[in-house]
Amino acid sequence: MANAGIQLLGFTLAFLGFIGSIASTIMVEWKASSYAGDNIITAQAMYEGLWKSCVSQSTGQVQCKVYDSLLQLPGIVLGTRGLMLASIIFSLISILVDVVGMRCTTCMADHPEQKDKVALAGGVIFIIAGLLALVGASWYGHRIAQEFYNPFTPTNSRYEFGSALYVGWGAACLTMTGGGFLCCNCSGEGSGKAPRYPAAHSSGQPGRDYV
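-> C-alpha cells emitted (211 positions)
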C-alpha cells in the first residue's frame, strides 16, 4: 500500500505539472514591460506571450492581438512554442501509460512485474516532459534577461519576467518531481517478488519430514 501511495503522490504531482504547463503555454504574460528607469510611460503595460501580445491601459481596458504570421515570429518564440507543446504531449502520453502501470488500477493486475515496468516508463516520460518545459521557460527567460541588460536596448523596450515564466518553471519542477517518485518507486523491490516468498518458505519442508 505504501508503494501504491508513493505512485499516487508522484502521479498527482506530475498531473499538476501537466496542468501548469498548459496554463503557462496559454498565458500571455511571458514577458511584461519593465518600469525600471526614468523615461517610462506607466499609462499602459505591455505583455507578450507565445501566441499573442496585449496592452493594458490604466483605465482597465485590455487590447490583445494574435500574431499574424508564423514565419515572421522570432526564433525564440517558435522554439519555446515547440518545447512547451512537446512537453504537454509527452505528459499526456505519460498519463495514459501510468494509468495502466500504477498499482492502484486494475489494468494488467495479473502481471505485476510488467505493471511496474510500465509505471517506470511513464515516470521516465514525465521527467522528459518536465525537462522540455524547463528548457523552454529557461531559454525564454534567458533571452529576456539578455535583452534587459543589453545597453543598446531602448529603455522603453525592456521587458521583465512575466507570471507565465514562473508558472512554467513551477510546472516543470512538479512534473519532474512526480516522474522521479514514479521511477524511484519502481527501481527498488518489485511487486512481483512478493508472491515468491511463500515458494522460498517451502525450503523448510524437508525439515518437517524428520518429524
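The chain is about 60% helix and 10% strand.
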